[in-house]
Amino acid sequence: EMAITKLLDTIHKGKASGDHVLVLSIDIKGVFDNIQHSAISSYLDDSKCPANIVNIFKNLLQNRKVILNTCEGPAIRDQKQGCPQRSCSGPALWNLVANEILQENWPINTSIQAFADDFVLVSHAPTRVQLESQINESIAKFSTWTSKNQLQISAEKTNYLLISRLVRGPTIRWQGERIKRAHAIKYLGIYIDEKINWNTHLKAQSTRATQLYHNLLKIAGKSWGVPLIHRRTLYKTVTERVLAHGAVAWCLEPTVRIARKLSTIQRPFLLAISGAYRTTSTAALQVILGIPPLHLQLQREARGTALFRLRLPLSTNISDIDPSEIEEKATGWSTHPSEHLSPTQISLDDGGNINTGLRIYTDGSKAERGVGAAFCVLTDVNITHRWSTRLSLRNTVFQAEILDLLKAVEHAVSLPTQQLTILVDNQASINSAANPKSHNSIARKIFKLLHSHPHIRVSWIKAHAGYIGNEEADRLAKEAAETENFPETPLELPKSFIKTFLRQKMLATWQMAWDDGDTERLIHNIIPKVSLHPINWTRNEVLFFTGHGPFPSFLHRFNLAETSFCSCGEIGTPIHYATVCLLTTSYHMAPPSQQHQPIWFRRVANNSTSRRKIHNLLHFLQRETSLFRPVPN
């Protein structure tokens, strides 16, 4: 996402200046197979890598042999090129070589970027002649670098995209071969077209979706195959993941056209999952299956990517959250891998029976008004110190627990060295603090303090078990959470809050569209509120409640039956068969009056016994089709 976003930003800056923009996609033939070991060794010598690591890699690349058994015996050749395949070090070794060309001095208004072996040059200029000069000068520099490292460019697969109103594009040649102009280029799985309207990408996504749809049909028919819940899982975990690739680039603010195209892509999957008739409304199927409109789902993920990975703010009409306020994931080790806490420092056994030495009790609490964190110090039976603070309502209980543990450890460090135990009723915060690779920055601070002060012990304690210290810490935390003017400690926003916020935004937009829609009002009456959880109706129940099923009234509307009447003489509607038809008396329920029909449908849908009767009724209707068709005159 970062590479794609960076490329688009560069393109947009060129367009904003009013220049012609050219994007050159460069393909290097078998780069990982053809990179020379001598080149890697040379770049290793020039790097700032420690000498011992340099020698390890050089030793790894020296005296490598390739042995092939032939009819005449084994053939042995020296291997002098190629990165170690599928190794963690392979990309790093390639980056050493690629870094030289990335640091080259490029012509004015020209830049280069790479992701693995995918290079792309972007240049912009006010005239075609100047643009042609800039890009050909850049190609000459790139060609010099490839020749130096014995790499070859595939002129057939290298092409350029011109974002301009120029009818005639610049003439670009690579060692005498002309580079072709393309209407769209594929970069890291995303198609970027010359108008940047994502038409080409959406067409490609539609083609991929069609392939996935046909694969789904192989294991899931209308009335056979894997159950509905597993079809839905396959869609969410496979299809949706494929379609969501790079959404931050093209679906952060989807247009009406993109939304319609994505709805068209999503619709076949909704029909395959539910088994509904193809005339059923897409909006109704989305609500029944608990699957949001695809453009809203992708937009939600794009917003999350923008905030979490790219650290880009959203538009002010969506959120005022500053990415710098969001909690960052800590990586690597907090200390040297050989350094661990003493085995006696951490205990997950109930420490309620500890009654010697100094004891510090911690607790966190969340109420409707805010979040509180507190600890108290117990000497014998006397509380000698109290500390508490209030956090934002956006913060979590875990953040409160990990913060009060940090403050308790810091307080313990400030005291004279003595037998001391910190008692915590939250095992998650203890486990996080004891983990040297914890992703939480506060937990890492706790680990370092505990490691340098081995006399401090941390033990779990059962909550609300009548321990004086625990009850006092709980009281202090609740008091801080519920007191509006209490001193507040600012903490970064947790990822869980952002996810919940984005989910609620998506649900609100979906709910508005569902309320304002003009189709499937009967389903809206039954399911007025959208949800991410499926209703768990069977296929027969979906056919009945949508009204799109084996009913003469429905079939006649689409010219699939000669009449809308049942063979009993009345109009063959779903409610007719469920209440009054002479041919379905075994499945009848009490008939409602005309004005109470919406309430009747809602009550039937919410009653499992009634739904079972509806399921059996539809099974009977589909099995005995000829009974419900009037005999032609």
Mind explaining what this structure looks like?
- With 633 residues, the chain is α/β, with parallel strands linked by helices.
- The chain has four domains: 1-193, 2-Layer Sandwich (Alpha-Beta Plaits); 199-324, no CATH class; 346-491, 2-Layer Sandwich (Nucleotidyltransferase, domain 5), CATH 3.30.420.10; 537-627, no CATH class.
- The chain has helices at residues 2-16, 31-34, 37-46, 51-61, 89-102, 128-148, 199-217, 228-243, 247-250, 256-274, 282-289, 294-308, 397-414, 427-434, 441-452, 468-482, 495-516, 521-526, 539-546, 552-557, 574-579, 597-605, 608-623, and strands at residues 20-26, 65-70, 73-78, 110-115, 118-125, 159-163, 173-174, 177-178, 180-182, 184-187, 190-193, 346-347, 358-366, 371-379, 382-391, 420-424, 456-460.
- A six-stranded mixed β-sheet has the order 12-17-16-13-14-15, sandwiched between helices.
- Strand 13 (358-366) and strand 14 (371-379) form a beta hairpin.
- The relative contact order is 0.07.
- The model has no long low-confidence stretch (mean pLDDT 92).
- InterPro entries: DNA/RNA_pol_sf (IPR043502), RNaseH-like_sf (IPR012337), RNaseH_domain (IPR002156), RNaseH_sf (IPR036397), RT_dom (IPR000477).
- It comes from Araneus ventricosus.
